[in-house]
Amino acid sequence: MESVMFRVHCNKCYQRPDAESTVPFYLSRCHHILCNFCLNETAPDKKCAVCEQPFRGVLLTQDMPTNVANYFEDPKRFLNLYRSICKFQADQRASDDRGFLLTIKKFEEMQRQHAAYHKMEAQFKDQITLEKGRLEHIRNYNAYYEQVTADLERSIAEDSFFSLDDLEDRPTTPPTDSSSDSNESENTQDTFDLDMEMKLAYKKNGRESPLTIVRPRTPSIDHEDLNF
Fold it and tell me: Which Gene Ontology terms of cellular component type are present (predicted)?
């Protein structure tokens, strides 16, 4: 116990151990140091000779347990250790806080991405609906002219008169893409282009074309004013 920061002595008789002393000293759980003589005085009652609490002690030697030996060490060593422990734990708490804040930011970013994807999904659904309508429009458009062509060919083959009065109203020309709106003039021009082909087919067979009827969706154009 060379590094003891105070003079070890019996708290009852104040006797101090020396290098040649063979008298044992004890440290009680109530933190009192007693020599063997004072301890024997209260041995029958098994109480501390200072505070009279139940005695439980450890013999003071060079090989005493670490938790007991620490009471005889320089407290500055423990102060530095506690400072190091406090700094370590503070750094770990700060690191944990940074990780938590990073997790929050990632979560908020994922929420923004989810909202953006949800908006994109809604836009795609709207686009699909528009494309379905456009596809149905194209199908009706094609079906109409397939019927016109079939009836025209049959009428030429049978040398009979063909009238478009028996057909349904011609559908509007479908736009080239779903984002562009087909206007009336474009529909009218496409109608005349197709009608031109039919009239030429009649002309080649020496017959008068029946396509002199003004169709729906072309009210501003007079066929008689056109030079075919």
Answer: synaptonemal complex
